Amino acid sequence: MIEDPEASEITDWPQIANNYWVLLSRLEDSSFDGQGLQPPLKEDRVFVVGINALGFSRKGLDLSSKTEEWRRGYHIALMKAALSAEHLTECVRDTTRNITFPKEYMIGPSNPRPKPVPLESHPAPLEANCVPASETPQTFYTKLLTTTGFSTGQRLDAALAYADWLDFRGLHDTAEEVYDWGLDIAMGALPMGANGAVDIQTGIISSNATYVSQNILRATTALAIHHATNNNLSAALPIFLSVLRSRKQLSLPPIPEPPPASESEPSNWQIIVSWVKKMVISPPYPPPPPTGDEVPVRSQRAICEEAAVMAHVGEILFASPSVTEKPASRATKSSETARKQQSGLSWTRDAVDMSESTLTSMDQNDIDGRQTCTECLETGINNWSKMVREILKEQQDVVDIKEEKPGTGKGWFWGGKSIQEEEEEEGRWERELELVDSRMSTVQRLIEREANAKKRRSPGGIFGFFN
Description:
This protein is an all-alpha fold and 467 residues long. Helix content is 55%, strand content 2%. It has a three-stranded antiparallel sheet, with no helix packed on it. A hairpin with a 4-residue loop joins strand 1 (91-94) and strand 2.
């Protein structure tokens, strides 16, 4: 267990990581579950970059001799091992006590000013007794990306998770290369003649694309988010708009056939026999998930993903004036700022409305879809509240400036509006703040209900370990 006195919740990441390492060792051991595994048939590019660049990677394997169920479990184990390694990146293990500490508590030359350990904790570790608490995350991600036998969606999962981790570590240039790699993976599975669906230089989906797979939508959206979070809004916005255009062109899902009506209710004896069968006979393994190479339909989950893209567009439009505009006169700049801010607000409102209405009508069994919708709704309503408060703050700043300069006439900041128009403008945003606060209360109750429902659906104990 990590000895972190400041942690509010304790997750035993060292034990979790060790469990997955043991599992991977067994899966790759030819005397156990690894019979028939071979080295990869071809080399692939590898990004082994990190805070402690080790200059090596563990090569992937050829899984072609294994069943789909085995490959799926192996992929889950590698992804979970990578996630565990992410949480242990800044930790060391004291080999004399087998205790894992955050590196900031370690006493030694590489950490000349260690953080004091609270009295109730174990004594701080000495650097001479410490080793890294885990393999680096890129060890597992590069193994995922160089393994033969995973589906396109599984490889894309690894690429996007790896790129996201690199972004988190501040390695933005390398992260962009991995996002591009993920886009290459998605495009490599397109049918013949559809390779021009995306501009590989910009990541923009062509308006003439006839085949846009789910993986293409995922890869381009992730690339746009990467650009947006790194303030490259001029690159992010066209990608988001192209993704949104492609999503709106998706076909509606077919209407499901109604279930056949049962002729009669089962007897008590039949119910008992059915229950005994379920207890004795192992249930079938879950069917394989979609590979992502198919063109998705405009399902409820897809609508929530569309709302998430709209929320991103709203953020960019609202924030873009302060980042991309060149200096100009205060009146001209403020007028353009107000126009873009109102446009961003409009996109954000629509995203909240769409995600909320979809969540309330979504199938209760679509756990992943409901999670996506809940996250979009929470992000959208928070953005909406922040945007309105920011506009009100700017208006108050204008009032303060006018009070400091009595000779300044009304209307200079908003491009010559009359006193009445300015008062109506101020009252409009105050009313909108009341509206968004009211919606915030409703949305919070909906989100809490979803969180409680998720807890009820999640299995506990050993059966919930690999979720």
